[in-house]
Amino acid sequence: MISRLTIFQNLCKKCINNKRYYSNGNNFLKNNTTNIVNRQEDPPKLSLEKDTIYSLASGVGKSGVAVIRVSGSQSKEVLKGLVNKKESEFKPRYATIGTFFHPLTKEAIDKGMFIYFKSPHSFTGEDVVEFHIHGGRAVIHDTLDAISSIGGTRTSQPGEFTKRAFDNGKMDLSEVEGLADLIDSQTHHQRKIAFNQMQGSISRFYYQLREDLIRSSAYMEAYIDFGEDAELDPEIVEQSKNRIIGIRDRIQSHLNDGKRGERLRQGAQVTILGPPNAGKSSLINLLTNRKVSIVSPIPGTTRDIIEAMLDIGGYPVIIGDTAGIRQSSDTIELEGVQMAKERSETSDLSLCVLDASQLIEQQTSNSQLDNELLNIINSNTIFIFNKMDIINESPLKKEIWGRKKLEILDNIVKHVNETRKHIDKVYGKDSIQSVEISCIDNMNIRQLLDYLQKSLENLFECQEQDSPLLTRMRYKEALINCVESLDRYLYFHDSDIVIASEELRSAIKSIGEITHSSNIDDLLDIIFKDFCIGK
Ligand SMILES: Nc1nc2c(ncn2[C@@H]2O[C@H](COP(=O)(O)OP(=O)(O)OP(=O)(O)O)[C@@H](O)[C@H]2O)c(=O)[nH]1
Ligand SMILES: [Mg+2]
Asked: Has the keyword Transferase been applied to this entry (predicted)?
């Protein structure tokens, strides 16, 4: 006897067939005559009728080797025009040495290498030819000129090769964004995350979630369409609800990744703060190895936030020097102090620079660390005692400093435990990270960088290895919309199954936006705007 579950599963299959879902290998898609999902209606068509585009794909300027890339239906004609070889010698994906001639003047331009990629097995999905030539300006110029003399060719727009790859279904949106990030990446970890994204780590994750949702939706639709006639057990709908709760929770925990992905893509924010004249600007100059901020003995020199990019152990960091925190009647300085506080509050890490040589002179240990400064300190603050060269010059000063430092640390512990404003645990003296440095002598700068690297490792540490990092706000927004729709689906599930299933469809649409947005043209313009010409 056939069980009810089997009948139901058959009905689901029927439902899927009726509504023309199809699978593209990763993903279930559905014809837009019904209602689910987005514009993934038909398999992509190759854009073979377009102009053939060409441009220098390697960097601008003199170099040993330059690569010129050609893509489009005329690629083979370009090759025939420039290379004195038979068509049978254009073996796809083989590097061949040849002399390149100008088709009009017949003059030899250069001797190099060419590779022919036959559609659809190329980056763009079109016929592609790459010329590897010597990277002199005149060689590049004359080769480009030779290509332009072949009919139906034109120079490419920024990102046009990638756009064609996207149009021809070679890459989805998140993979294109991964490629853009890979080209932009400046540090080891940025490159790693961008490369994984370009290789489809994000796409696979979202395709899987979307496919799971579509399966559950198909069960519900089958129930709505055939449930009563077939006297189906409502328990089956209940089971798909439980699966959807599981998917919702997975998306939510993925959303709670603490901005790690965005930080890694854009750089962690580190703020240098402290009282005036402590050596904040000297420190940023030392860490960046250039003069980004003015250093002077006059307290209150820095007013604005001065930012610089750093690579610390492969992690990108946007470090900011700020105005010294103090009471002032100068409104411009006060504005700077306010900006310093705000930046520190939104920062991932703060470096609180104090002048150790001043601290030992003072009776009260907290005169430099007044309440205004103490209030901004949080658990991600590293204390830096600067100007240790002055202390180290005398054994007496060193001895006084030993006691003073303990007093200061006690004071900080007391203050943060009393206010506990930003702290989620009781602060012990050991939990305060502090380094003694000298910007003049370069003392302990390596140790400071090690501290910073460890803190960044904690910050970027991936607790949930099976889900990729959320690298863009766009993904986050789509996922928030998805979770909201799923919450509404759960709300209506018991009272109105039809509205609930509508919500499920809109959740599926939201998650699909990540890889195939419905605002595709606007989005592509934004993504490709930043691409270089030959990509
Ligand atoms: N002896 C000694 N002097 C230092 C050290 N670091 C900085 N200085 C000096 O301290 C003075 C102030 O340095 P800055 O880097 O401008 O201090 P700042 O904290 O940016 O000061 P504001 O911008 O006014 O808040 C300058 O004269 C520096 O040369 C150090 O490690 N040892
Ligand atoms: Mg300064």
From this structure: no
Torsion, CA 283, CA 288, CA 292, CA 296, rounded to 10: 20
Amino acid at the residue 163: K
Same domain, 403 and 321: yes
What the block records as the tokens of 355 is 């002048």
For ligand 1, whether the C-beta of 386 sits within 6 Å is yes
Residue 177 in any domain: the answer is: no
Mutate-to-test residue for ligand 1 from 282, 334, 444, highest number of ligand atoms within 8 A of CB:
282
**The token pair that represents 207 in the structure block:** 């395709």
Ligand 1 within 6 A of 438 CB?
Answer: yes
Domain residues for the domain of 94 are 52-167
Domain boundary among 150, 167, 184: 167
Pocket probe mutation, ligand 1, options 277, 302, 337, max atoms within 8 Å of Cβ: 277
Q: Summarize pLDDT for 30-70 with one digit per residue, the tens.
A: 333 233 333 344 444 444 457 999 999 987 778 899 999 99
Tell me which residue has its CA closest to atom 7 in ligand 1.
Answer: 279
Residues 152 and 249 grouped into a single domain: no
The count of structural domains within the chain is: 3
Residues 6 or more apart in contact with residue 88 via CB below 8 angstroms: none
pTM above 0.90, yes or no: no
What's the pLDDT tens digit per position in 449-474? 998 998 888 877 754 455 677 888 88
ipTM score of the complex? 0.99
